[in-house]
Write a structure and sequence with these properties.
With about 425 residues, the protein is mostly helical. The chain has one domain. It has a 3-stranded antiparallel sheet. The protein is globular, with a radius of gyration of 22 Å. The termini are far apart.
């Protein structure tokens, strides 16, 4: 008799198999970065992070305290952690920090009882990390993403701890605030969620105030307001095509924050509308989440759909639109797949295409767009932006489906709820 051989699914579902793929992905990018590491160089925005960290360490000038900064104050923590390796090996330190946090996200997906499709979600996370690798390992978003994964996974069993984790991520890069808001709106333990988030924020604020940085505490918000419509932002698309067709717009470099913006034509009036549109959209989505809490729906389902809607809105109605923003979606969709499996196949498949298009545009073909306004690259970017808008639409429609009278959402296979306050 032949010994029984495990099928492909049985092999792929083993924790060891997932960790082997994790190792392969990270070793690949370490090898790609090795020439830069060996030469003492960095990649992408990591050069800025190194400058900021050693400006504080060597000269005592701290970003967000002594001078205005584009990031919240806790973004300095990982930058200082990478500095432990010294200026010459800073890129290695940053890469290892990304690796550790990515491992934490994968283990959370694989081991937490709140998820039913953990290994599938872990593979999705690794696939998207690999596709977006040039961004995942060179932007602070690559650190906040895995932290958000851990926070979302913890939300079902430990909402207060989840709130604290997500609040720390928010003080690294603002976008997880959308996830905190979704958790606050959807959780029965909303008071504990609120108190935990406020405690983390109070710690951060007190730290800045103690350093004499009161005037720069919210400098990252002011910096966003002063920006123009960035080249890659979803609603910059009409202005981008005006530039491609030479119809009154042009690309303008913003040297202060090393971005490229579209000026003139439709870009200026659209830019003026971004913050009001974002505010209105966030309010409407929050109201939908609150209305959904009155229906018979699993709160973890509601959290994830609400988080996707809010995070997508923060990208669609944003003047910035940097390519690394796709990492925000990766975090939420990965946990959505972990909890719901095939029910989140549409956003998962859409996000794979979004990631591929994003990497094609930046960094692979970016100079052709920037210098030559290549219509083919502009078309790729337009398709990517349309798919991001579609993700927002999918999430909003899901919320409407929960709220709509006569619709029961209890058929979800999720058994975990966002509270059980009576036994804690």
């Amino acid at each position: 008799m032949h010994a029984h051989r495990p099928g492909l699914t049985a092999i792929l579902s083993k924790k060891g198999s997932v960790l082997a793929v994790f190792a392969a992905v990270h070793i690949l990018f370490l090898l790609l970065l090795t020439p830069r590491i060996a030469a003492g160089n960095t990649y992408g925005d990591v050069s800025l992070y190194r400058d900021w960290a050693f400006l504080g360490l060597n000269e005592g000038t701290w970003q967000g305290v002594d001078v205005p900064w584009v990031y919240p104050i806790a973004a300095m923590f990982p930058m200082l952690a990478a500095a432990l390796f010294g200026p010459a090996q800073y890129m290695l330190g940053w890469f290892l920090l990304c690796t550790v946090l990515n491992l934490g996200a994968v283990l959370a997906l694989l081991t937490h009882p709140a998820v039913r499709f953990g290994w599938q979600a872990a593979y999705l996370w690794l696939l998207l990390t690999a596709i977006l690798g040039p961004l995942s390992f060179s932007r602070v978003d690559g650190l906040s993403g895995p932290i958000v994964v851990v926070g979302l996974v913890l939300a079902a069993s430990h909402p207060a701890i989840a709130s604290a984790v997500l609040s720390v991520a928010t003080w690294i890069k603002v976008w997880p605030a959308a996830v905190v808001l979704a958790l606050l709106m959807s959780s029965r333990a909303w008071l504990r969620v609120l108190v935990a988030g406020m405690a983390v924020s109070a710690f951060m604020v007190c730290g800045v105030l103690a350093g004499g940085g009161a005037r720069n505490l919210l400098g990252f918000i002011q910096a966003q307001g002063e920006r123009g419509m960035q080249l890659e932002a979803p609603l910059t698309t009409p202005g981008l095509w005006q530039a491609v067709l030479d119809m009154g717009t042009h690309i303008h470099p913003n040297f202060a924050i090393t971005t490229m913006e579209i000026r003139g034509g439709l870009a200026d009036p659209v830019g003026a509308l971004m913050n009001p549109l974002l505010a209105v959209t966030v309010v409407l989505i929050s109201l939908l989440i609150l209305a959904a809490t009155r229906r018979k729906t699993e709160r973890l389902d509601l959290l994830l759909v609400g988080a996707l809607a809010l995070v997508s809105a923060m990208i669609v109605f944003n003047k910035v639109g940097s390519p690394q923003f796709m990492i925000w979606l990766v975090a939420v969709v990965s946990v959505g797949v972990a909890v719901n499996g095939w029910r989140w196949a549409v956003p998962a498949a859409t996000l794979v295409v979004v990631a591929i298009l994003t990497t094609l545009v930046y960094p692979l073909l970016y100079m052709q767009l920037l210098i030559g306004l290549n219509p083919g690259v502009a078309a790729l970017l337009t398709a990517r932006n349309a798919l991001v808008v579609m993700l927002l639409g999918w999430a909003v429609l899901k919320l409407v489906g929960i709220v709509r009278p006569g619709r029961t959402h209890a058929e979800a296979p999720v058994t975990t709820r966002l509270v059980a306050p009576s036994n804690r």
